[in-house]
Design brief:
It is an enzyme of class 2 (transferase). The chain has a single domain, classed as Rossmann fold, CATH 3.40.50.2020. The two termini are 27 Å apart. The chain is α/β, with parallel strands linked by helices. The chain is built from 4 helices and 8 strands. Helix 1 crosses helix 2. The mean pLDDT is 93. The structure holds 1-O-pyrophosphono-5-O-phosphono-alpha-D-ribofuranose, guanine and magnesium ion. The site of magnesium ion (MG) has 3 residues, from loops.
Amino acid sequence: MSDVRAEKAFPVYWEQFHRDARALAWRLAGEARASGGFDAIVCVTRGGLVPAAIVARELDIRLIETICVASYHDYKSQGELAVLKGVCDRVANVRGGEGAGVLIIDDLVDTGSTARVVRGLLPKAHFAAVYAKPKGRPLVDTFVTEVSQDTWIYFPWDMGLSFQPPIREGAAG
Ligand SMILES: O=P(O)(O)OC[C@H]1O[C@H](OP(=O)(O)OP(=O)(O)O)[C@H](O)[C@@H]1O
Ligand SMILES: Nc1nc2[nH]cnc2c(=O)[nH]1
Ligand SMILES: [Mg+2]
């Protein structure tokens, strides 16, 4: 989201996230049939951890690795992208090297910067995200829902219940 101001909010609740992550698993099951399956999952921390758990359960994948990337240091503003931990050789070479047979999972692609770096490390892997914005979309092999570039997605783990003032008290203005 670095150069476009996020004007619209897209809040996602746990039930919806579970449904969308399952929809991703259904699509990936089709991909797996066509491509010979996935032997391992690499989840992009931290956001990729949650959909990775759901997809791993649905596709019965038990070899799971993380790639630890940090870039959004402040809320909504992307800084320098740092890979804090790469992928172990056992997973990167699970089917002949360069990420062949590996499924990479993240919660979303926005500008595509994170996906570009991760794909560079595992060029033969399949990259999946639950949500995609237009700039990041060319970097993803499989996703479920596209939102506009000026939308900020609020995940259930980032939200909590809070009091809402009644509309007549000015909240609608
Ligand atoms: O396409 P991009 O513009 O690179 O943005 C997408 C990345 O941003 C978020 O991660 P973030 O860096 O905020 O860290 P987190 O997963 O630890 O929350 C999200 O989980 C993606 O990994
Ligand atoms: N939660 C959240 N993190 C992001 N990182 C980059 N874009 C987004 C977004 O829309 N929502
Ligand atoms: Mg992330």
